[in-house]
Design a protein that fits this description.
mainly alpha; 4 helices; 55% helix; flat
Length: 75
């Protein structure tokens, strides 16, 4: 998501950005796995201990955006 937005908002070369994303795929997957394990081990009252607890909402925003009347991106 952020890489795709960077292409649109900053005018970056889409091939270079997506090639970089592909090279980082393994590391990105590992971060996701680590985060999932961390969150799964937290109790309801422990989410405040996360360094960026609002970042969890980023997974929900694409679904909200897809159903908005006014879209930020046409694609």
């Amino acid at each position: 998501g952020p890489a795709s937005a960077a292409v649109r908002l900053l005018g970056l070369d889409p091939y270079a950005v997506h090639a970089m994303t592909a090279r980082l795929a393994g590391a990105i997957e590992q971060v996701g796995d680590d985060a999932s394990e961390l969150v799964a081990g937290l109790g309801d009252d422990e989410f405040g201990a996360l360094p960026a607890n609002s970042a969890l909402a980023l997974d929900l925003l694409p679904d909200v955006h897809a159903h908005m009347e006014v879209r930020l991106f046409a694609s």
